[in-house]
């Protein structure tokens, strides 16, 4: 270390010592506040009524008592809030104590201004004697943006009041662990490759980590965007789309703090395993997780009685190259528009209702309901029409009470009541029941009212709307609404598809495309108001969403700004309609407020793995790898399945560390591989549902569950010509290969898949048995 560098270390160490000193005092003060406020709260609670002036004999006395109780409660809440806030702040300081900051930027803002030294960390911390003197800046503070943007000298950053100009004179990476400055490194660039490389070389973890210290410039743009209604992040596998969006959530919560809660941000993720994988990132940054769910969960919680096609079934169906034109049509944005058009027409005619029953008899017939529904004038919209109908229906139910009271079943029930039961039931009578006649009337009314309550609830919950029939009616009506020829279909083909859907539906089964249609129809026909609260919506692996689904989400969350993360090269479910995806988006969102950011650098895998994988794609040329080296991918060609298992078992026993995934095409294959490896004496864990947890060690996992995840070593099971015969599976092979961080081994029983013939033979090692 030269003298200059040694001096820099000394200066930084001295400053760190100072900051840690302040942190220690601040922690002590907070600890004190917590102790005192808790004690005060306890004291107030135990003496609550002693301290309240209780006077109840006069009206003034009662008023005074009320005021006194309220004051006492306010005091209690104040103390409670105080220690809760202090506890939260203390946690932040404890995090800073472990890692005070990770970067420094020296800059001047405005002519003749003094040089400012900005230290960037996970949270802000001000000097004890001067609240305006920030010793540490939160990485999300507007000024910190210049650290992540490239270059030095004059730069601008976006502050809430507009753009600000600064002159950046120094960018310094710092590695601080507890009380020690471990690394000081000046860089001219944005975030130097050195720390990034060091981070990426580490072994993977079953939980994703935050990347605040090494956010790259394009990622910074994604994180800090507040203007776009639609932000599309198209990026290669491993380019940090997911990482960036999680930091974006943290940024938004900071930027709009006080006005935005984690419950107003929703992330749609590819599967439950992925949710588990990313679950620690936000807590690590001191924020709570946003709402997280899969699209499947979003729908299935509303249709508990229907069995929706599973992720696996959907994947297997889509592997079939003969993908029905019908499904493509149903998945399109146009189909959503058709549905809207159909729902609009329901204002004039065509709503399907069910009879409202009471004790097995028709109380209000569907014809009667239809008549009521359509007798309101043209100005009613679907929502008002329904509400008005409901209140009419409730009135009718009430009118039935009088006649129902005279029915035999009522009389029989009352005659069978015991003395105690009668006493109990009449205890709530508002006026004394003088005669037996009065008592009888009271009981009969009560009985009938209670029995009608179920009917009332059904009305309130729209149970008289026959959604199942409406859904079938809609499918039948489609040929009248659109010329099937324009979407590459004809009447017999459509009819056949409808028959299959109806048959499955009657058996309680429904596909993922159909369930979206079913629920959208339910919402539209009933004029449901969408959710106005959600402010930001994120979709990971958005390339797997159909135009219909995106339109339905937009309809559901009309106030939310959308961020879509996708890699059109990894469209596992909808690959053939990938180009349609972007076209449909431009119809859903105003292009003027849409921004598209392309991430081309892949951070996950070594240069060797990235170079290899990108050649599997015709469009892969633009993907760059981050300069991290490793061994060449290996294609191991063996003669038989037995030899393949033997090879796999040997490999697993020798050189593996960290996480290893054996990725198979289907779940069925995963079962076989697990059983065979166990027969060879190797312990492995099978991931067969998305509800399992990821752990270290060796996992066997089908491709569709490995989406979005990463592992130190990846072994692809049997990517042979036989198993992956054509081009349509190239994207799947690409997705599987790009799960590997350090090492990739591909096993093939017999000739490897044709996908590999596109790859330069120098970029992998072919080992033949
Ligand atoms: N700026 C960064 N600093 C450090 N690590 C990063 C950075 N960007 C990405 N990474 C790491 O690269 C890996 C891949 O990132 P991520 O999973 O976000 O990529 P992705 O684009 O969502 O990938 P895929 O589409 O394949 O799911 C992760 O381990 C992530 O932590």
UniProtKB/TrEMBL annotation:
One of the protein's GO biological processes: recombinational repair
Keyword terms: ATP-binding, Helicase, Hydrolase, Nucleotide-binding
GO molecular function: 3'-5' DNA helicase activity; ATP binding; DNA binding; hydrolase activity
Annotated ranges, domain UvrD-like helicase ATP-binding: 214-606
Region forming the signal peptide: none
High-level lineage: Bacteria, Bacillati, Bacillota, Bacilli, Lactobacillales
Protein name as annotated: DNA helicase
Database matches in InterPro entries: DNA_helicase_UvrD/REP (IPR000212), HelD_bacillota (IPR048228), P-loop_NTPase (IPR027417), UvrD-like_ATP-bd (IPR014016), UvrD-like_helicase_C (IPR027785)
One GO CC term on file: cytosol
Ligand binding (ATP): 235-242
């Amino acid at each position: 270390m030269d003298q200059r560098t040694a001096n820099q270390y000394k200066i930084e160490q001295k400053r760190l010592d100072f900051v840690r000193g302040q942190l220690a005092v601040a922690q002590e003060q907070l600890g004190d506040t917590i102790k005192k406020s808790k004690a005060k709260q306890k004291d107030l609670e135990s003496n609550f009524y002693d301290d309240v002036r209780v006077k109840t004999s006069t009206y003034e006395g009662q008023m005074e008592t009320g005021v006194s109780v309220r004051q006492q409660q306010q005091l209690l809440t104040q103390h409670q809030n105080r220690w809760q806030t202090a506890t939260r702040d203390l946690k932040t300081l404890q995090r800073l104590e472990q890692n005070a900051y990770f970067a420094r930027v020296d800059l001047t803002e405005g002519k003749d201004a003094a040089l400012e030294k900005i230290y960037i960390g996970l949270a802000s911390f001000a000097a004890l004697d001067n609240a305006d003197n920030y010793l540490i800046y939160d990485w999300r503070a507007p000024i910190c943006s210049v650290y992540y943007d490239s270059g030095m000298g004059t730069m601008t950053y976006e502050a809430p009041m507009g753009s600000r100009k600064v002159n950046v004179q120094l960018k310094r990476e710092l590695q601080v662990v507890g009380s020690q400055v471990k690394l000081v490194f000046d860089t001219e660039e944005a975030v130097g490759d050195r720390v990034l490389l060091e981070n990426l070389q580490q072994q993977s973890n079953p939980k994703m980590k935050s990347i605040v210290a090494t956010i790259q410039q394009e990622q910074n743009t994604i994180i800090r965007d507040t203007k776009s209604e639609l932000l599309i992040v198209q990026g290669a596998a491993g380019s940090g789309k997911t990482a960036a969006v999680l930091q974006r959530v943290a940024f938004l919560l900071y930027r709009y703090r006080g006005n935005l809660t984690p419950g107003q941000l929703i992330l749609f993720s590819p599967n439950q395993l992925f949710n588990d994988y990313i679950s620690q990132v936000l807590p690590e940054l001191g924020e709570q997780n946003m709402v997280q769910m899969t699209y499947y969960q979003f729908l299935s919680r509303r249709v508990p009685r229907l069995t929706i096609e599973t992720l696996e079934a959907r994947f297997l169906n889509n592997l079939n190259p003969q993908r029905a034109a019908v499904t493509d049509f149903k998945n399109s944005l146009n189909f959503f528009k058709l549905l809207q058009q159909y729902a609009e027409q329901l204002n004039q005619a065509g709503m399907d209702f069910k009879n409202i029953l009471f004790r097995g008899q028709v109380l209000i017939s569907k014809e009667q309901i239809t008549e009521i529904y359509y007798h309101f004038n043209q100005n009613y919209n679907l929502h008002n029409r329904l509400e008005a109908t409901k209140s009419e229906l409730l009135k009718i139910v009430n009118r039935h009470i009088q006649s129902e009271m005279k029915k035999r079943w009522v009389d029989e029930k009352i005659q069978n009541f015991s003395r105690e039961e009668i006493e109990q039931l009449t205890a709530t009578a508002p006026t004394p029941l003088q005669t037996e006649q009065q008592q009888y009337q009271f009981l009969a009314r009560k009985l009938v009212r209670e029995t009608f309550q179920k009917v009332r609830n059904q009305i309130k919950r729209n149970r008289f709307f026959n959604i199942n029939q409406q859904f079938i009616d809609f499918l039948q009506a489609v040929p009248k609404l659109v010329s099937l020829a324009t979407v590459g279909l004809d009447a017999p083909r459509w009819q056949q598809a409808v028959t299959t859907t109806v048959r499955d539906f009657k058996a309680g089964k429904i596909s993922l495309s159909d369930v979206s249609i079913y629920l959208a129809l339910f919402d539209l026909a009933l004029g449901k108001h969408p959710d106005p609260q959600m402010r930001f919506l994120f979709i990971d692996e958005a390339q797997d969403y159909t135009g219909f689904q995106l339109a339905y989400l937009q309809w559901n969350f009309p106030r939310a700004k959308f961020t879509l993360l996708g890699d059109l090269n990894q469209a596992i479910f909808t690959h053939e309609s990938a180009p349609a995806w972007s076209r449909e988006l431009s119809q859903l969102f105003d292009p003027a407020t849409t921004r598209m950011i392309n991430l081309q650098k892949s951070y996950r895998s070594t240069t060797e793995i990235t170079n290899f994988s990108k050649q599997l794609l015709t469009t892969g040329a633009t993907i760059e790898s981050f300069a991290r080296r490793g061994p060449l991918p290996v294609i191991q060609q063996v003669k038989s399945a037995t030899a393949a298992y033997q090879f796999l078992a040997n490999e697993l026993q020798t050189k593996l560390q960290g996480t290893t995934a054996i990725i198979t095409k289907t779940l069925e294959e995963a079962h076989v591989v697990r059983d065979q490896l166990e027969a060879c004496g190797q312990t492995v864990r099978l991931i067969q549902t998305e509800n399992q947890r990821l752990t270290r060690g060796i996992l066997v996992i089908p491709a569709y569950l490995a989406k979005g995840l990463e592992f130190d070593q990846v072994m692809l099971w049997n990517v042979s010509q036989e198993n992956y015969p054509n081009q349509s599976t190239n994207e799947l092979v690409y997705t599987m290969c790009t799960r590997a961080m350090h090492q990739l081994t591909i096993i093939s029983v017999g000739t490897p898949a044709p996908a590999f013939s596109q790859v330069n033979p120098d970029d992998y090692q072919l080992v033949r048995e």
